[in-house]
Amino acid sequence: MQNQDCNYVNGKWAVSSGTTRIPVINPANDEVIAEVVAGTAADVDAAVASARAAFPAWSATPPGERADYLTAIAGKLAERSEDLARTISAEMGCPISISRAIQLGLPLNSFAEAANIVRGYEFESEYRGSTIVREPFGVLGAITPWNYPLHQIALKVAYGLAAGNTVVVKPSEVTPLCALGLAQIIDEIGLPPGVFNLVFGTGPDVGEAIAGHDDVDIVSFTGSTRAGRRVQEVAARTVKRVSLELGGKSPNIVLDDADLETVVPASVKTMMLNSGQTCSALTRMIVPRAKLAEVEALAKATADALPVGDPTDEGTALGPLSSRAQQERVFGYIRTAVAEGARLVTGGDTETDAPGAFVRPTVFSDVTEDMTIHREEVFGPVLAIEAYDSDDDAVRIANATDYGLAGAVWSSSTERAEKVARRIRAGQVQVNAGAFNANAPFGGYKQSGNGREAGVYGLEEFLEIKSIQR
Q1: In which residue ranges of the chain is CATH 3.40.605.10 found?
Q2: Max Cα separation, the chain?
Q3: 232-263 pLDDT tens trace
Q4: CA gap 362, 349 in Å, rounded
Q5: CATH among 3.40.309.10, 2.40.160.60, 3.40.50.720, 1.10.3210.10 for 251-431
Q6: C-alpha to C-alpha distance for 273 and 270, rounded to whole angstroms
Q7: How far apart are CA 290 and CA 128, in angstroms?
Q8: What is the pLDDT of residues 378-420, one digit of tens each?
Q9: Catalytic residue among 91, 173, 208, 245, which?
Q10: End-to-end CA distance of the chain, in Å?
Q11: Which residue numbers delimit the Aldehyde dehydrogenase domain (predicted)?
Q12: Euclidean distance between CA atoms 154 and 107, whole angstroms
């Protein structure tokens, strides 16, 4: 078993002032596979001081040189992709095939794309007699989740460093090992000391110390809406910029002319990806009332056919949830849905003696807007089917949520689908089989957060704007 008693601060491994450790548990079999130190506010102080001291030189480093470091990181990630993919599978239960393609593919893309963008980015421009300068904030505090652990770190670190900020990262205590792997790569390529810092620990101890720190200039947080509110509250004391990528309860509108035999299986499989632990998952399928029975049959057949099991098995589609705590949370939502009158189409097991935090793919129908499963993010393999009576009714149901992260519309007419898509209040909307664009701006409306990640917009999230008048 691996024990990690150090944080990564000022270009070296630094023993934490904390004296306790956090176990890292494989959710597929409940085994403790590692322990990491539970960092402290004093560790955060040291990391932030290091980042602050490194900022002047790093921000003055030419963008092309910063890009060279990011390219080197991407290269090392590619070299070690199999080991890192297996690490992520072990610490959070993602099937190995998905870990390779997505859990590693996305962060690889972020480091490479951030490097490409910053090489040609215009940090200065002229506007009506003024010079407009975009410059880094200073110290970026990055607080990241467990569902796409390396991807969410990369979105903040790659673009934050490209912009010229220095960084202090707090990874999720559930999935710290991939962050450790990234720190080892950064150490190996020789990134200047203090530019990247990593502090292990919990949200209340380390996350809040970062969010409230006087010398942290901007905080980028990804996680639940509840936790995001707390980050914003703590950060408000120093009036710093806060970027939040939070929860979702995303609608998937199936119009009455859509090909159900294609749309429903594709939608169920995509929604169940990563065992439903995706903030932008299309967890509400909104369908014509007249076709409800047909949709239910197709959804049940698809969900029942998904292979659930050992994440190291190449054929597994769904592994366990990230933890026993997350499993119980999802079971609680399933019990509540049944109690509130939702009709269980398939799945829904809430009792198991088997090892591992598994939940069977679950589908509910007859879901209405007053039900908890309509309103709250489950973050598990649980689909809610809701019926509508007209296109206007479908849009109303889609927007009847506190969230606005993602959405989708399906129709045999792309023009008709796009008209409906433009009425959905969400940060990104898929039309028919529109492919996910990893470099398009990602972020939400309403309580799904603020700010955008990835691509040019992700870079600009970490840049201040200054105007110079002569």
Answers
A1: 2-246+448-469
A2: 73
A3: 999 999 999 999 999 999 999 999 999 999 99
A4: 8
A5: 3.40.309.10
A6: 5
A7: 58
A8: 999 999 999 999 999 999 999 999 999 999 999 999 999 999 9
A9: 245
A10: 62
A11: 15-468
A12: 5
Q: What is the DSSP string of 295-307?
A: HHHHHHHHHHHS-
464 catalytically annotated: no
Structure tokens at 146: 């467990």
Nearest CA to 195 out of 162, 152, 233 is that of 162
The C-alpha angle 268, 405, 150, rounded to 5 degrees, equals 80
Residue 118 CB burial class (10 angstroms; 0-12, 13-18, ≥19): buried
Kindly report, residue by residue over 321-355, the tens digit of the pLDDT.
999 999 999 999 999 999 999 999 999 976 666 78
Cα–Cα distances in angstroms (integers) from residue 65 to residues 50, 83, 137, 292, 463, in the given order: 21, 28, 19, 57, 18
Assign 367 to helix, strand or coil. Answer: coil
Calpha distance 216→235 (Å, rounded): 9
Count other Cβ atoms within 10 Å, centred on residue 290. Answer: 10
**415 vs 339: CA distance, rounded Å:** 40
Intervals of CATH 3.40.309.10 along the chain: 251-431
- Tokens coding 40: 């402290």
**What's residue 48's pLDDT?**
98
Closest by CA position to 426, among listed 251, 245, 255, 226: 251
* Long-range contacts of 434-443, Cβ-Cβ distance < 8 Å, separation of 24 or more: 438/106, 438/109, 438/110, 438/113, 439/109, 439/113, 442/155, 442/245, 442/280, 443/245, 443/405
Helix (H) or strand (E) holding 344: strand 343-346
Confidence label for 152 from pLDDT (cuts 50, 70 and 90): very high
Q: In the CATH scheme, what architecture does the domain 2-246+448-469 have?
A: 3-Layer(aba) Sandwich (3.40)
C-alpha–C-alpha distance, residues 191 and 242, integer Å: 26
Handedness of CA 163, 168, 172, 177 (dihedral sign): positive
